[in-house]
Each structure stands twice: as C-alpha cells, then as structure tokens.
Amino acid sequence: MSQMLFFFIGRTLFLDILVWVLLIGTLLLLAVLLYMQYKQSKVLKFELSQLDKVKSHNVEYDFILKAMRLAVWHLDAKNRTMTFEKDYRVNSAGFTPPPDTSFDELVMHYHEDDRQRMSEAMTDICEGTKDSLHEVFRGLSWFSDDTFWSETFAMVAERDAEGKPLKVVGASMRIDQRKEMEEELVKARARAEESDRLKTAFLANISHEIRTPLNAIVGFTSVLPDVAEEAERKELLNLIHQNTQKLLRIVDDVVNISKIEAGMEQLVMTAFDLNLFLTQMAQTAKKDAQQGVEVTTEFAADEQFITTDHSRLTEILRHLLSNATKFTSQGCIVVGYSAPRNGRLRIWVRDTGKGIPEEYQKRIFERFFKVDEFVPGAGLGLSVCQAMAYSLGGKVGVESKPDEGSTFWVEVPFQ
C-alpha cells in the first residue's frame, strides 16, 4: 500500500515538474519570438522610412527636371546605344529618339554642321579620353525637317575593372529662346553700331550740306556791293536766294522729323482738290528738273477731292519730287495717283532715273541712310516722308530696278 502511494506521489510530482518545464519553455519561446518580432518590426520601419525617402527623392528629382525642363538620358558606352529616361523639354515631340538608339543613327540627327564635332565629343567620353561633356548643337526632328537648339551635359557614371567607361549619364535642354535672344542682341548691337556710324556720317553730311549754301550766301553777299551791272546783280541775288532755300530745307527737315517724333505737331485735316494740288507740285518740280527731262501728271479721275493734312502731304511730295529730279538725267518724271481702293489712296512719283538696287530698297527710308554718299543731301528726306506718312495713318514704299527707274509712293486713308 505504501509503495503504491509512493509511486502515485512520485508520478504526480513528475507531472508537475514537466508542466512547469513546459510552461517555462513556452514562456521563453514566446519571449524570444516577441524579441525577434520587435527586431523585425524595427527593420521594417527602417526600410519603410528609406522607401519613403526614395519616393520623396524621386518626386523632388522629377520636380527639378520639370522645373529645369531637362531631358535625362544614359549612354551604354560599350554598345554605343542611348536611351532617354525622362524628357521634360518643352515642345520636344518628335525630337526624342526611340529607346536604345545606336550612336551612328543618333549622329545623323544632328545638324550637318555639328555632326563632326558632336561625334568626336561623344567618342571621347565613351572611350574615356574625357570624363565630361558640354556641347551646344542643333538637332533634327526624327519625323520632319524641323531643327532645334540643344545644350547637353554628360559625365561617366560607371567604369569597369580596367577603368573603361560602362555608362555615361547626361542631361539636355532646349535653348531655342536663348539663341533667339542672342541673335536679337547681335542684331541690336549691329543696329546700334550702324546707327553710330550713320550719325557720324550724318554730322559730316549735315555740316557739309549747311556749309555749302552758307559759303555761297556769304561769298555772293560779300561781292554783291562791288557788282555794277544789273544783270550780274540779279544773277547773284538769284544764287543767294537758291542757296537760302537749300539751307532752309535742310533745317526744316531736321526740325520736322524732330517735331513729329516728339509728338509736338498736330494734324490739320482739310479737304482739297488732289488734281490741282499735284499739278501745282509738278509745275514746281519742272523748275528743278534737269535739262531734257519732262515732268508730267497722270490722274485716275478728272476730279478727285481728298481730306488730309495739306502741309504734310506737300512736304512728302516735295521730297519725292526732289529725289526724282536729282537722280533723273533723261526721260521723264510722272506724278499721279491710282483709283482709291479699300479706303486708301496711293499717290506716286515715277521716274526714269538710275534706280535703286534691291538690297538698298528696304533701308532707303532709314534716317541718315544714303545709297550714294557723293550725291548732295543729308539723308533725311525719305525718313521725313516715312514719319509724316505714318502720322497721317499711311505708309510709303518704293518699286525700283537699277538703270530702269523708280516709283516712290505714299498711301493715305481716303474719305
């Protein structure tokens, strides 16, 4: 009986110990699992934070590319193929090559004047001769004949064990607007330099033009008291009068163009008979025409009234007729007008003079510009005509062929 009791107590104790061992083991296992889960959660949190940083970095990266309007590409230096990863250049449709474009094919889409330079630059960086690249070139569209200006930066990103380039990364941007601005600045500088030259020439011309009639006036006036014959006195007085008129016209041209540009003169619109007006202008021009040159009129109607500023139109026609008489040594000068069209009326002066080369016809109305520096004049007459025509709401122009003559015209609003 006692043995059975002892066996039963021993068995119960063993089971209790086993239960406690299992319980403690389970607790230890749970503790280890909890610790491992804690460590894993920390790793996951770290990886998630790194992923967020990468995402944030990519967003910032894209934002910078968009803001800078860049295209990012990489070049496989071994296979000589290029792939554009992102392209945020403005209006670049058709200018981005397909993925894995070969180097030889890519070179053919540079402008022919830039191909050799770009080919050498790309070869140098792919072969490791140079570590970086910075070039400006003209590119061609892949689907049309359109061209664009591009500025490209590149550098070696990966090398093999021998130090040879494996991968080249680069960025490109379109600089069409910058190039246009550069061209405009160059043109502006050229215009400024030309303006300086013309102003210097103008000062020389104007001083000569003013000095010539002044010398004549002073010279003839000084000898006038010593001339006894009436006919000779009249001739001297006539020469003095002519030179006085020349001097007055030069001063008037300078004053008129200055007043018009300063907006100091107001238009005085009046209605008058255009036929009578042009007939009177032709009669005046006959006195200045060279010997053998006929001055006539040609009108589109028997009677034509026009409303405009009489004095300004007179000044324009005076200059146009003065040029015609100056440069026409034979043939004829015709002043007239065409029938009104689209609310405008064109008045013209046609001559059979020496004509104007085509390259000068666009500049002939510029201030101080003279086709022939050896012909008298300050180079302001046609500029005055243009300024006055604009003030009337019209425009001026010329049609001419060398050795065949010229037709200068002024077009004004017709009421």
Describe the structure.
Helix content is 51%, strand content 22%. With 415 residues, it is an alpha+beta fold. The strands form three sheets. The protein has a six-stranded antiparallel beta sheet, sandwiched between helices. A five-stranded mixed beta sheet has the order 8-10-11-13-12, with helices on one face. A hairpin with a 6-residue loop joins strand 4 (132-140) and strand 5 (147-159). Helix 5 (230-262) crosses helix 9 (381-391). It is elongated, with a radius of gyration of 45 Å. The relative contact order is 0.06.
Please provide a brief summary of the model.
By secondary structure, the protein is of the alpha+beta class. The protein has helices spanning 2-68, 103-107, 115-126, 176-223, 230-262, 274-288, 310-327, 358-361, 381-391, and strands at residues 70-76, 81-87, 101-102, 132-140, 147-159, 165-174, 269-273, 294-298, 305-309, 332-337, 344-351, 395-401, 405-413. The chain has three domains: 1-67; 69-174, Beta-Lactamase; 266-413, Heat Shock Protein 90, CATH 3.30.565.
